Amino acid sequence: MISKSMQQAVAGSSAIRAMFLEGKEMAAKIGAENVYDFSLGNPMTPVPAEYNQAIIDAVQTESSLELHGYMDNAGYPETRQAVADNLNKRFGTDFEGKHITMTVGAAGALNIVFKAILDPGDEVLALAPYFGEYRGYVANHQGILREVAPDTETFQPDFEDLKNKITEKTKAVIINNPVNPTGVVYSEETIQTIAAIMGEKQKAYGHEIYMVSDEPYRELVYDGNQVPFLTKYYDNTFVTYSFSKSLSIPGERIGYVAVNPSLADCEQTCSALSVATRILGFVNAPSLMQKAVTKAIDATTDVAYYDRNRKLIYGKLTELGFTCAKPQGAFYLFIKSPDADEKKFVETAKKYHILLVGGTTFSCPGYVRLAYCVSYEMIERSLPAFEKLAGEYGLA
Amino acid sequence: MISKSMQQAVAGSSAIRAMFLEGKEMAAKIGAENVYDFSLGNPMTPVPAEYNQAIIDAVQTESSLELHGYMDNAGYPETRQAVADNLNKRFGTDFEGKHITMTVGAAGALNIVFKAILDPGDEVLALAPYFGEYRGYVANHQGILREVAPDTETFQPDFEDLKNKITEKTKAVIINNPVNPTGVVYSEETIQTIAAIMGEKQKAYGHEIYMVSDEPYRELVYDGNQVPFLTKYYDNTFVTYSFSKSLSIPGERIGYVAVNPSLADCEQTCSALSVATRILGFVNAPSLMQKAVTKAIDATTDVAYYDRNRKLIYGKLTELGFTCAKPQGAFYLFIKSPDADEKKFVETAKKYHILLVGGTTFSCPGYVRLAYCVSYEMIERSLPAFEKLAGEYGLA
Closest approach of chain A CAs to the CA of B240, in angstroms? Predict the structure, then answer.
């Protein structure tokens, strides 16, 4: 018999799987081209050629035992240095290689950060709506996740609620920017306000309250928006990152944690991350992938691809009378459900072969998430279905 | 400030790092060729050519988005099937692809198994001497590790102690075969005896007590020895495996869990492993590495390389009067310390530039581990130093 906590997790996972299978059945019945699956956040832009070339070069030219072998748990020195240099060049920061721990993706990065900082019963705040997996990541380390409400006009955080939710037990606040699932970018003003609140609370409680920045969508921003780089605003900051979206390689599990050089007990904390990656069983980020991202560190993805999708679907949905937060980053739209119960709206959308994810998954019922990391042609094909859906709710 | 549990872990890790640095300093002073570092368990045999070729072929011929993309958390269907087929062919088992979860190495495999089965306070037994990392893996999931004493004549387990240590709270017994650090292979008789004891205790307590087999050294056996494949002896068995040693690719983090089809609640347990790999932050085993091991599944390492080393070092050390368990597998020798305090012996060996690991790390004080996964030439060069070391203890 599996453990009690896993019995719940498996049940929850079965629901997602059921939806996935439903989509497959739909495709088998009416043809895949007639199913409009907006449920998955998988990158769609081409993998940069220099990344694939870097893999081939490494395999053909480097010593196999070293290439596929162990290194320091924190990663190859040259990879850590390349990440530090890249950040410094782009954001004017002063990271050294020793501040970087290479990780098994952003999920691995968040887990080693929580392993390093959480004592049992410590609280971690997430700004709703948020990526539901954070619940599991915090629980893995016996932490307790608490939610901060959004301002549902702008989907920036509700600062009063943030103030009230920080307690003596709060050890960290997760900041995901751009935000999955809303596509909103937290502005510099928002970050400054959060930093000021956290700074005051640190003083009041006399211990660190860490900012844990989760930025897999950092490069996916539109209309000239900039994502504030958080170490500039707050000393006790961890930046967690994945190359999944920027290089379209989510299956390869490669990312990093960058520790702000001015974080309290910085050196001991970096050691703790390195030990945590070993203890949790990651051991180290996959070695060949470390070599490949070192070479492809300056590669960028085709943001225009997602931007074109964004303009088409956001333009059409608002024209049809749907209400969405203005999407400025990532590849998601967060749509206000025209049905008070968003689960019913998700079901109604399915009648028109549109697959969406209910906001409850992101602790924000009454909304649905649409992922537009799909082909432009699929969006075009889907528009008549959205028209009918709007019609059913009398929106247009 | 890092968490309390990590403060201890970092301190422990610093001790290992100190030894590593000491070796480096020694090499800088007297030349790397005059330092005999037997402390690390890193594979040394060439990476099979078909593995590297499989990587290049996949990058050159497959769709990049699929190759580097997400798949089911449990892994690519063809990879899981290839593992099942390989096991069935070699061991006469009846695995299907659905019984296999691809993992981030054996450490990742053990962690998802413990995540899937342990409730807080559950006990896991390890047969001393054992790989010290098990302590962390069990603690990650709020389990409690208990030790079973060895028979120090044979380094097979002490069965009476095993009987006494299994309690109402025991959820699993870890069996590492061949054994790190002794190099001993548990015989079929040993496995049958353990299985019989565990079977009785399951009945007595009315719940599953799982056998968790950790077999990264499965293929490294000598003198025609066979490692019993545990699902044949006990229904409630998980087999965890890494390709690190068999393909010499420890940095790539690729392995698997195979669930015995006759394990209780097999289907739900397989689901739990898949969910656990997601929740713990591994998400899935690195995708390109899954493709590569699929193609290289029949590749084997050069066992004769390690065997030649084994014969040289074991022959010489016993000739010099040292006492070691007969090494039948893996690439370790476990030497009885001629000093009652093995830490002193480790220090004395350093005087002769020989680096060994004390048995306390493996919960077996009074012994030291020697890893002979080094070059044959280094062993040859080290022999006069061992002669002096034996002389200092008046052994010869």
Answer: 13
Of A70, A269, A289, which is closest to B250 when you measure between CB atoms?
A: A70
| Ordered structural domains, chain A, with CATH | 4-47+301-392 (3.90.1150.10), 50-295 (3.40.640.10)
CA atoms within 13 A on the CB side of B320: 23
Cross-chain residue pair A251–B6, CB shorter than 8 Å:
no
Distance from CA of B88 to the nearest CA of A (A): 25
Query: How would you class B224 by CB atoms within 10 Å of its CB: exposed for 0-12, middle for 13-18, buried for 19 or more?
Result: exposed
Q: Confirm whether the ipTM is greater than 0.90.
A: yes
Q: What is the pLDDT along chain B (396 residues), one digit of tens a residue?
A: 999 999 999 988 877 777 778 888 999 999 999 999 999 888 999 999 999 999 999 999 999 999 999 999 999 999 999 999 999 999 999 999 999 999 999 999 999 999 999 999 999 999 999 999 999 999 999 999 999 999 999 999 999 999 999 999 999 999 999 999 999 999 999 999 999 999 999 999 999 999 999 999 999 999 999 899 999 999 999 999 999 999 999 999 999 999 999 999 999 999 999 999 999 999 999 999 999 999 999 999 999 999 999 999 999 999 999 999 889 999 999 999 999 999 999 999 999 999 999 999 999 999 999 999 999 999 999 999 999 999 999 997
Identify all chain A residues contacting B104, using CB atoms and an 8 Å cutoff: 104, 253, 281-283
The CA–CA distances, whole Å, from A317 to A381, A396, B46, B232 equal 14, 10, 58, 59
Contact A265 B59 (CB under 8 A): no
Mutation for testing the B interface, residue in A79, A275, A302 having most B CBs under 10 Å: A275
**Of the partner residues B42, B133, B281, the one whose CB lies closest to the CB of residue A104:** B281
φ, ψ at A164 (rounded to 5°)? -70, -30
* Chain B positions in Cβ-Cβ contact with residue A117 (cut-off 8 Å): 2-3, 6
Look at residues B134, B156, B154, B159 and name the one whose alpha carbon lies nearest to residue B144: B134
* Alpha-carbon A162 to chain mean position: 20
Rounded (10°) CA dihedral A374, A377, A378, A382: 130
* A60/B65 touch (CB, cutoff 8 Å), yes or no: no
